[in-house]
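Entry for the shared binder. Reason: the reviewer on the internal report wants the predicted structure included alongside the sequence.
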Amino acid sequence: MLSKTSIVILGMLRKGEMNAYDMLKMIDRMNMKYWFPIGATTLYETCLRLEKKNYIENTGESDKKAVYKLTDSGLKELKNTICELFERVDFDSVWFCLAVMYSGVLSKKELKREISIREKLLDEYEKGTLENKERMLQYDVSYIEVCAIDRMIQIIRMEKETLEHFKEQF
């Protein structure tokens, strides 16, 4: 599976060729610094790693800066990663944000399938998390001990709401 930074780079390159500086400007315009900051060094190093893996290639269109484009294998890896992200629940919500942000890599049929899988997972996690909270409350644990469970429940519910908005688009 791709790293978060790799997902962002490959996702941006789906729109067309770019150099690393333009990617940084786009990240800034998207205000990602508030939910997933990516520094220049990380971006440049990740581009080099992605190039070595043949997920992106330098078009050679500029002598001064590497201009990258997405390769077929990079597109395939991005697509696989987005599917993997839909098919697992992680309470680091950045992963789900990236899956949603770059879900355009999937066909409508693929996206419908992934949404269905995600909904079933979230229902299962919500049920289990609510049961866990009830057990904790039966033993008179303090709210401080339960608040992390409440956070997980809220994340699950927000993700379910996001998926409902997705389905409205079909």
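Summary line for the report: The helical segments are 4-13, 20-29, 40-52, 72-86, 93-101, 108-138, 143-168.
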